From TrEMBL, chain A:
Amino acid composition bias (Basic and acidic residues), ranges on this chain: 7-17, 30-46
Stated name of the protein: Calpain catalytic domain-containing protein
Organism: Candidatus Yanofskybacteria bacterium RIFCSPHIGHO2_02_FULL_43_15c
Catalytic site positions: 97, 311, 329
Domain Calpain catalytic: residue ranges: 86-331
Protein's GO biological process: proteolysis
Sorted UniProt keywords: Hydrolase, Protease, Thiol protease
The keyword Hydrolase appears for this protein: yes
Region (Disordered): 1-46
UniProt cross-references to PROSITE patterns, sorted A to Z: CALPAIN_CAT
GO MF annotation terms: calcium-dependent cysteine-type endopeptidase activity
From TrEMBL, chain B:
Source species: Candidatus Yanofskybacteria bacterium RIFCSPHIGHO2_02_FULL_43_15c
Protein name (Swiss-Prot/TrEMBL): Uncharacterized protein
Superkingdom of the source species: Bacteria
Amino acid sequence: MAGGQQEIEKVENETKENLAGLKENPNLEAKTEIEKFEKRQEREISEPLIEEARSKRNQLLEERGLLPMSKADFDQYFASKDFEIRTDLKQGNTGDCYAVAAIHAMSRSPHFEMIVRSSMKKLPDGSWEVKIPLLSKRFQTITITSEELLPQENKNLGKTIKTEGGIAPDLREVLTPVQGKEGLQVLEAAFIKQKFGMVDRLAAEGGWGDKVLLALGGDNFKRVSFNASRYNEETEQLEYLGLANIPNQKYVDDVLENFDPEIHIATAVTKFFDRRTLIAKVAGKLGLSLEGQVKGAYRAEETLKFFVPGHSYSISKVDRQKKIVTLANPWDTSKPIDLTFGQFKKTFCRLEAIRIDNAKLLKNMEAVARVAA
Amino acid sequence: MSNIHELAKKFEVQIKEAIAQKFPVPPEELSLLLEDKEGVYLSEEEPNTLGCLIVGQKNGYLYLVMAKIEEDGQSLRDFKSDIVS
């Protein structure tokens, strides 16, 4: 479950900071990368041969820069089943959906094994060593102990938190980590520790998925990001629009149509509730919490599916022939959600995609190898 | 340098062209990983086929070019390219 109105306010404030003052085209971040978005081509080479090439790439990296984690450890701590990297996650009661969505999106990538084995290691005492950014020559080593993976006392217990209809007590006695394989829990904890200096789950509530991916991947990742929220300086309010409202639809369509899960890793954020809508005003008068209601879910336009407002989802795959985006909710990633491109663009306000920059990766690996020597 | 690395070096222009014809990247921005043992390999999946990993130095993509080895072992034909990551 998300952390509630305070979490939403945190990301809203960050959005306002990002958007305020941007007079021109605030919706297209990393425009150059968007324009260079590689057109997805039909595969000339069969999947087994591509898989073989990935394996060679991993061996090449192992020879250059020493992958500290063995294949056996990767299989034990990250793969849910034998020979299957795909893993299911369930967000704990901490409001870090953005981090869980990012980790899930990353775990779906065929490059996840290489990324993880390059920068994570389980130590004999049961603790973990994680180099962040992964593979960077200027990494910070984060140690995660077994205790840091346990549920954590909620320092906010009993304190009031803002809700749409007023205030309510935070009744969570403990803040729990993501449910899933140990290695994925370690990634969540390592991200929090790297950002906040300690595994402070409360501090980690509220954020953006691409920031997690960039924090974990550093300059080895290139980024494409769309944000359809607008800051109205006259009303000093954020306007919550779907991706369908971005003026340069060509860019959004281009990215969706050429999105290749074999190459890209992505998360998307649903629209926040617009508090100026009639339903929000009525709910406010009645003292009801819209965000808290789902459980907070709302039904997306043109579909019977329900979505959580202001919530991060991971993108699992994109079928460009049928124009379908498959997403996963970090509350339970085992249940895929299919949306047409049109439904997706009306439901989500932010799309964040990254891909690996192999040139930087190889250069960084050279540097890591030199340090190791 | 192994025989297959030398063969890839000999056909470096054609290998880069196979990528440049399919993807919008100029050949001069492409680098073969000839210093790495696994940068050029014989495919176990497809007999008599050479695999070659190439990195786009500016765009950061890792490409794969596969080509058939002629019976004499001295030349390559039927170049195919794709993005690996």
